[in-house]
Specification:
Layout: E1 6-11, E2 20-25, E3 34-37, E4 45-52, E5 60-66, E6 70-77, E7 81-89, E8 97-104, E9 107-113, H1 123-127, E10 130-140, E11 143-146, E12 150-156, E13 159-163, E14 168-172, E15 184-188, E16 193-198, E17 203-208, H2 217-221, H3 225-229, E18 238-241, E19 247-250, E20 255-259, E21 265-270, E22 282-287, E23 290-295, E24 298-303, E25 309-314, E26 321-323, E27 331-336, E28 339-344, H4 357-373, H5 382-388, H6 392-406, H7 417-445, H8 448-467, H9 473-485, H10 487-498, E29 500-502, E30 508-510, H11 514-521, H12 526-529, H13 537-548, H14 553-567, H15 582-591, H16 598-611, H17 614-627, H18 630-640, H19 645-661, H20 669-672, H21 682-692, H22 712-724, H23 728-732, H24 734-737
Antiparallel strand pairs: 1-2, 2-3, 4-5, 5-6, 6-7, 8-9, 9-10, 10-11, 10-12, 13-14, 14-15, 15-16, 16-17, 18-19, 19-20, 20-21, 22-23, 23-24, 24-25, 26-27, 27-28, 29-30
Helix pairs in contact: 4-6, 6-7, 7-8, 8-10, 9-10, 10-13, 13-15, 14-16, 15-16, 16-17, 17-18, 19-21
Length: 751
C-alpha cells in the first residue's frame, strides 16, 4: 500500500496453476491476513489496486479486478483484518474484456476490448476495437457504489494506462498497428483534454474533449496524420510512473527517458549491457530524487535531476520488486523470494564526498570538446580523461572548482603552485559563478512578489555571460529561449549590455564595447542558423525594440551602421553589410509581425530612410507617393538630394514624373524647382514631362473643364531657371572670351 503498511502478493505460477492473492500487514498481528484463490475456469486477474477510504482516514480499500469486469472491494479493519465490502461489475457490456487498469484519485481508469460484431473486419478496423473508460468508486457508510461510466477514448488501439496524481498516460501496448505506435497520449482529467505526444520528434498537440464525439480516436488524429506518418515508431521496452508525476520510459537500447505531463522528453541515463531482450524484465522506482533501476541482477541508483550514476550494486538474486518506504527517503526496500531487504542510500559522515555536479560537468564538456577535435575513432570517456594524464586543462579546472566549492563545508586541501596562480586569475569568474548560483537559489525560494525582480537580474547576468562567450549555435539557441521566456527581462538586459540611452538632444547613444558589437552584428546569419525557429542575435534585439521601444529601432539601426562603417571595409564579405544589409534585416523582423498597422508603415519608412542608401531612399519615396503624403515627399526630397548628385537626379526625375501626372505637387513647386540638377537641360525636362503625361480617352481640347491638366505656365519658372543658368561649356571658356584683345596678338618669331 502507499503507506507501506500492507503488502499484497499475486502468485500466478504455483505448482498447481491456480492464481492466489495474499495480503498481510507488514508490522501487524497474525490473523489479520487475506488469502484468496480461485478454481478454473476463472477469468484472468488484471489488477490489484489500493484505494484510500474516505470514510475512515488512514484506512485502505483493496480492489481485485478480473478481466471480464467483476470487482471485489475489500476493506481493512484494525484488529479484525480484511473484510469483503461488495462485489461490483465494472464493465457495462457482457463481451468487454479489461486489458489494463489503474486508479486516478477516487476513480478507476481502464482500457477494455470490445470485440466487433462482424468477425470479418479488415485489420485497420479490428485494431481500433478498444475503449478507455473511467468510473468513480464512491465509498459510503452503506457500502460501495460505482458512478456512471465515462468514455475517455473510443475506437482506439490497445493502450496500457498508467496514472500519476493529476494525469493518466496512455502508452501503446503493441507495435502491430504502425500508425498508433508512433505516439503516446496524455489525459488531463481536470482540464478535460488529451495531448498527443511524440517525444523523440518534439511533436506535441492538445485537444479539448468538449463532447462525446470528440473522444473518437480517429477524429482526435485528424490534422496530425500527415505529421505522425513520417515519424519512427516509439521504442519502449518498459514504462513506469515516477513520484514527480512524469512517465519513465526504457528503450530496447537501454536509454532511460522521462516524459513530462506536457509531452516534453528529457534523457536521464543509459543502462549498460547493450540491447534489451523482450523477455528481460526491468524494474523502475523513484525514491525522492533518486531513480532506482534493476536490470539482470544489477541495481542502478541514478540522480534524476543530473542523470549522474550514484551507485551500482550487483545483487545476489535476479528477480526483485521495489516496495513503498514512506518516511524513509534514504532507504530502498526490495522484495525477493527469500524476504524483504533494505538498502541505505545515505553515506557515512567520514566517507569521501562525491564530486560536485559542476566538476562532473567540466569533464563531460571536456570529453565533447576533445572528441570533436580528435582524429581517433575510439570514444573518449570521463574515466579515460581523469586517468590518462594527457589532458591537463580539465584536471586543473576540476581541482580548482573542487577547492573553491568545498572550502565552506570543510578545510580544503592545498593546491599546487600552478593551480594556485590559475585560481588567483579565475577568482572573479568564480565569484561571479557563486553569486549566480546564490541568485538562482533566491529565485527558487523568493515569495511571488519578488520573483520578477530576481528573474530580471538573473536574465541580465545570463545575457551578459553569453555575450562574452563564443556565439555558436548552442548559445544562440539558448538566447532565443531566454528572449521567448522572459521578453521584458531580456529587453532590460539588452539595454544594459549595450548601454543604450538618450543624450541631452534626445538622440540614442550606445556605449557597448567593440567585442559586444561584433557579437551582435558579426555573429551567425539566418542561412547558417537554419529554419528551426532560431533567429540571429541582431534580429532578436530588433524584435525586442519593436515590442518595448519601437521609436528607438531606426536610431539603433543607424548606430549599428555607423559601427559597421568603422569596423569593416565597405562590402566586405566578413562584415554584416557584405551579406544582407542591416536595414533589410530589421525590415524582415517588421514583416514577421502578425498584424499590420499604420505605425508599421511609418516604421518601414524610417528604417528605409535611416539607411541613407540610394535604393532605400527611392523605395521610401515611392512608398510616400503611394500613400499620397506630399508634404513628407518634398521634405525627404529636400533632405536626401544633398547626399549625392546621382541620387539628386533620381529624386528630381521621380518627382517631375509625378508633377506631369497630377496637380498634387503644385503647392510645393517653389521648394521643388531649386532641386533641379545642374546637368539637366530644358530638353531633358520636356522629355520626362511628355513621357509621363496622363493619356486621355477623349480628343484633347485647349481649355479643359477638369482643371487638372499640365500647362506651360506651370512649367515656365522651371524652364526659365534652366535656360538662364550658365552653360557648363561657357564656364570652361570664360577666360578666353573675356580677354581684353581679340584675337590675341601673334607671338614673336624666332630667327
Amino acid at each position: 500500500s502507499p503507506d507501506g503498511q500492507h503488502l499484497v502478493l499475486l502468485q500466478k505460477s504455483r505448482p498447481p496453476p491456480l492464481p492466489r492473492v495474499v495480503a498481510f500487514q507488514r508490522h501487524g498481528i497474525a490473523g489479520a491476513d487475506l488469502e484468496r484463490s480461485w478454481q478454473p475456469p476463472q477469468p484472468a486477474l488484471v489488477g490489484l489496486l489500493f484505494l484510500q477510504s474516505p470514510v475512515t482516514l488512514g484506512s485502505w480499500l483493496l480492489a481485485i479486478v478480473w478481466e471480464h469486469g467483476r470487482t471485489e472491494v475489500w476493506h481493512f479493519v484494525v484488529a479484525v483484518g480484511w473484510q469483503l465490502l461488495q462485489t461490483l461489475e465494472l464493465c457495462q457490456g457482457a463481451r468487454a474484456r479489461i486489458v489494463s487498469l489503474c486508479s486516478q484519485g477516487a476513480s478507476l481508469v481502464w482500457c477494455e476490448e470490445r470485440p466487433p460484431l462482424d468477425a470479418h473486419l479488415d485489420v485497420s478496423k479490428s485494431a481500433l476495437r478498444f475503449c478507455v473508460c473511467t468510473r468513480a468508486l464512491e465509498v459510503g457508510e452503506q457500502g460501495v457504489r460505482l458512478g456512471t461510466v465515462r468514455i475517455v477514448l473510443h475506437n482506439s488501439p490497445e493502450y496500457q494506462v498508467l496514472a500519476s496524481p493529476r494525469h493518466v498516460f496512455l502508452v501503446p501496448a503493441t507495435a502491430s498497428f504502425a500508425t498508433t505506435s508512433k505516439f503516446l497520449l496524455i489525459w488531463h482529467p481536470e482540464k478535460a483534454k488529451l495531448t498527443i505526444a511524440a517525444p523523440s520528434a518534439g511533436f506535441v498537440h492538445s485537444k479539448a474533449l468538449r463532447s462525446s464525439s470528440e473522444s473518437d480516436f480517429r477524429k482526435l488524429l485528424l490534422g496530425s496524420v500527415g505529421l505522425l506518418s513520417g515519424l519512427a515508431p516509439l521504442d519502449i521496452h518498459t514504462s513506469a510512473v515516477s513520484n514527480s508525476g512524469g512517465l519513465l520510459l526504457v528503450s530496447t537500447k537501454g536509454a532511460v527517458n522521462m516524459v513530462e505531463p506536457d509531452g516534453t522528453q528529457r534523457h536521464i541515463f543509459d543502462l549498460e549491457g547493450g540491447p534489451l531482450a523482450q523477455g528481460s524484465p526491468v524494474q523502475l522506482k523513484t525514491f525522492g530524487s533518486i531513480l532506482a533501476c534493476v536490470l539482470a541482477g544489477v541495481l542502478y541508483l541514478i540522480d534524476q535531476n543530473s542523470g549522474r550514476l550514484i551507485e551500482k550494486k550487483i545483487l545476489s538474486m535476479k528477480e526483485v520488486h521495489f516496495l513503498e518506504s514512506p518516511g524513509e527517503e534514504d532507504s530502498i526496500q526490495l522484495l525477493s523470494q527469500t524476504g524483504i531487504y533494505s538498502f541505505s542510500t545515505s553515506k557515512p559522515e567520514d566517507s569521501s564526498r562525491p564530486e560536485p555536479c559542476l566538476v562532473e560537468m567540466v569533464f563531460e564538456e571536456a570529453c565533447r570538446y576533445y572528441q570533436r577535435r580528435s582524429l581517433s575513432s575510439s570514444k573518449l570517456t570521463v574515466e579515460k580523461l581523469k586517468k590518462g594524464g594527457v589532458f591537463q586543462a580539465p584536471v586543473a579546472l576540476a581541482a580548482i572548482l573542487q577547492h573553491s566549492l568545498c572550502q565552506k563545508q570543510k578545510p580544503a586541501r592545498g593546491l599546487q603552485d600552478t593551480y594556485a596562480k590559475l585560481l588567483s586569475t579565475m577568482s572573479l569568474e568564480l565569484q561571479s559563478y557563486m553569486s549566480l548560483e546564490l541568485l538562482k537559489t533566491c529565485v527558487v525560494c523568493a515569495p511571488e512578489s519578488e520573483v520578477e525582480s530576481y528573474c530580471e537580474e538573473l536574465v541580465e547576468q545570463e545575457v551578459s555571460r553569453v555575450l562574452q562567450s563564443d556565439m555558436d549555435k548552442d548559445n544562440l539557441t539558448y538566447l532565443n529561449s531566454i528572449f521567448a521566456s522572459f521578453p521584458k527581462a531580456a529587453w532590460k538586459a539588452t539595454r544594459s549590455c549595450l548601454q543604450l540611452q538618450q543624450n541631452g538632444d534626445g538622440l540614442l547613444v550606445a556605449r557597448a564595447t567593440p567585442e559586444v558589437w561584433k557579437k551582435v552584428l558579426g555573429g551567425l546569419q539566418q542561412e547558417e542558423v537554419g529554419q528551426n525557429g532560431v533567429v540571429p542575435l541582431f534580429e532578436l534585439i530588433c524584435a525586442s525594440f519593436l515590442r518595448f521601444k519601437p521609436k528607438w529601432l531606426p536610431s539603433f539601426v543607424e548606430l549599428t551602421q555607423q559601427y559597421v562603417s568603422t569596423s569593416w571595409a565597405y562590402s566586405s564579405k566578413e562584415g554584416p553589410e557584405g551579406r544582407v544589409p542591416l536595414y533589410k534585416r530589421a525590415l524582415g523582423v517588421l514583416a514577421r509581425k502578425n498584424k499590420r498597422s499604420e505605425a508599421d508603415d511609418e516604421m518601414e519608412l524610417e528604417l528605409l530612410l535611416c539607411s541613407k542608401r540610394p535604393k532605400a531612399v527611392l523605395q521610401a519615396l515611392q512608398l510616400l507617393i503611394r500613400l499620397k503624403r506630399w508634404q513628407r515627399v518634398v521634405e525627404v526630397a529636400e533632405k536626401f538630394s544633398k547626399l549625392s548628385p546621382l541620387l539628386n537626379k533620381e529624386i528630381f526625375t521621380t518627382l517631375l514624373a509625378e508633377f506631369a501626372q497630377h496637380r498634387e505637387l503644385d503647392p510645393y513647386l517653389d521648394t521643388l524647382w531649386p532641386l533641379c540638377p545642374a546637368e539637366l537641360t530644358a530638353s531633358d525636362i520636356l522629355t520626362v514631362v511628355l513621357q509621363h503625361l496622363p493619356r486621355s480617352q477623349e480628343d484633347p481640347v485647349p481649355f479643359s473643364s477638369e482643371g487638372n491638366q499640365l500647362t506651360v505656365g506651370l512649367l515656365k519658372p522651371l524652364l526659365q531657371r534652366v535656360v538662364q543658368r550658365p552653360c557648363v561649356q561657357d564656364e570652361m571658356y570664360s577666360d578666353a572670351l573675356q580677354s581684353p584683345t581679340f584675337p590675341p596678338p601673334t607671338p614673336p618669331r624666332e630667327h
